[in-house]
Specification:
The chain is mainly α. It contains 21 helices and no strands.
Length: about 450
């Protein structure tokens, strides 16, 4: 039996031993706690929420709003959350509103009032009542004690929610108001203290900037550049390994911003972003999101084919690496290499060979610069993965049929080893490559 199931069983036993008639307040308090436990219980969510409501009803019938306003308000707020979870938004809004009214003016209950108002704002947003949502968030935002980490997180979350409600109105005025809310939120959030909140606000900021760019033609480029910067900030927290779904959404929106900016380099950036999105979404769970991302990928690829009909996605990625500055190139290449290294065989080696072959065929200084970066990345990996990378590099060069081009690629690799690696690392890499058949040019 799980810890949660044990907790529910213990509360049920306590409730059974606490007669409603003789000890009503204790019975009500246990019913409320049991409702909270069921609302968070395992099993089907709907079943847990329905059972929770039966206990909230019991608690609410005992706690009298005239004499126990705070306790009654807590029950109403919890019941509102359960109704919202079941899709009963009208009922949820009614309960949140009543809870907020009861909390109003009660000393020391500002945080609970803020929570009820925040819940009210969220459900109003879901009902399409964005003005009403903004009003609720407005009342809530000033109630948080920003002298505590919890209070700062609460304020930031409420500002974010208010920004979402403003942005949902779709007008330029609404989007400008949303940007103001997000800017205020970012002024209160610390990435180390509340990384998720920081990334969430940055992502929403990017979405609002992108939407506003479609309405303000004269400021389109500036707004999209700012959107790109915001999405990149969100991706410092929404990483592939820790928050894959949020990472995918941010990558897709980043790609759309690049498409909006236009130009070959930005289309290639967009293509890489969409590839990252598609690679992370599970079609069984996020089918609609995957289809949207794949459609974006295909559109961008087709746009690039107009000018570069023979280039593959890998060719575009490598040519992007050759176009951008060193810091961006290293960041793009590191993410791609780490992603490929996480795949199982034979896909891992297959994709690494494709990437390395495209690099090698660039020729000259461009190939050498990217090879240096790749070596500086792979040398940090465990020996087993370093050997996978070096083997893929060797096999890629062996696939070059033209002797002159292959020698040029091997020469670029040899120079890259000499430039990118220190003495012991250089010896290690050259010895391994020679052990699998590579010959220095």
């Amino acid at each position: 039996m799980s810890d949660r199931a044990n907790a529910i069983r213990s509360l049920e036993e306590q409730l059974a031993r606490t007669p409603k008639g003789a000890r009503p307040h204790e019975h009500a308090a246990l019913s409320y706690r049991l409702g909270l436990a069921y609302a968070e219980s395992t099993g089907t969510q709907a079943d847990g929420l329905r059972r929770a409501l039966t206990y909230f009803d019991t608690a609410g019938s005992i706690f009298d709003p005239r004499f126990d306003p705070v306790e009654h308000a807590r029950v109403l707020n919890a019941a509102g959350a359960a109704h919202r979870g079941l899709g009963n938004r009208k009922k949820a809004a009614e309960l949140f509103d009543k809870a907020a009214t009861l909390f109003e003016g009660k000393a020391g209950r500002e945080a609970e009032l803020a929570a009820a108002l925040n819940n009210l704002g969220l459900v109003r947003s879901e009902q399409g009542d964005f003005d009403g949502a903004v009003e609720a968030f407005e009342r809530a935002v000033g109630l948080f004690d920003t002298g505590t980490a919890e209070g700062r997180r609460g304020k930031v979350a409420t500002l974010h929610n208010r920004g979402q409600a403003h942005a949902a109105q779709g007008s330029a005025e609404g989007l400008e108001a949303a940007l103001s809310d997000y800017a205020e939120a970012l002024g209160d959030v610390d990435i180390d203290e509340a990384p998720y909140h920081f990334a969430l606000v940055q992502h929403s900021l990017g979405v609002a900037l992108s939407a506003l760019a479609s309405q303000l033609a004269d400021e389109r480029e500036r707004l999209l550049q700012e959107a790109v910067a915001a999405f990149k900030e969100s991706l410092t927290v929404f990483t592939r390994g820790t928050m894959p779904y949020q990472y995918s959404l941010a990558k897709h929106n980043l790609g759309l911003a690049y498409v909006g900016l236009g130009g070959v380099a930005n289309l290639r950036r967009a293509l890489a972003s969409f590839e990252d999105t598609v690679s992370m979404l599970d079609t069984r769970v996020h089918g609609d999101a995957w289809r949207q991302a794949y459609a974006s990928l295909e559109r961008t690829e087709n746009d690039l084919k107009v000018e570069f009909p023979a280039m593959t996605r890998v060719d575009h990625f490598v040519n992007l690496l050759a176009q951008v500055k060193a810091d961006e190139r290293i960041a793009l290449l590191r993410e791609r290499v780490f992603h490929l290294m996480a795949l199982s065989e034979p896909q891992r080696s297959q994709f690494l060979i494709e990437l390395d072959l495209a690099m090698a065929l660039l020729g000259g200084k461009k190939a050498r610069a990217i090879m240096e970066d790749e070596l500086s990345i792979t040398i940090e990996l465990p020996n087993e993965r370093l050997e996978v990378a070096l083997t893929a590099r060797h096999k890629a060069h062996r696939e070059i049929a033209d002797d002159e081009l292959r020698i040029e690629a091997d020469t670029a690799l040899d120079h890259a080893i000499g430039e990118a690696l220190g003495g012991p690392q250089r010896v290690l890499v050259r010895d391994y490559l020679e052990s699998i058949g590579w010959e220095r040019p």
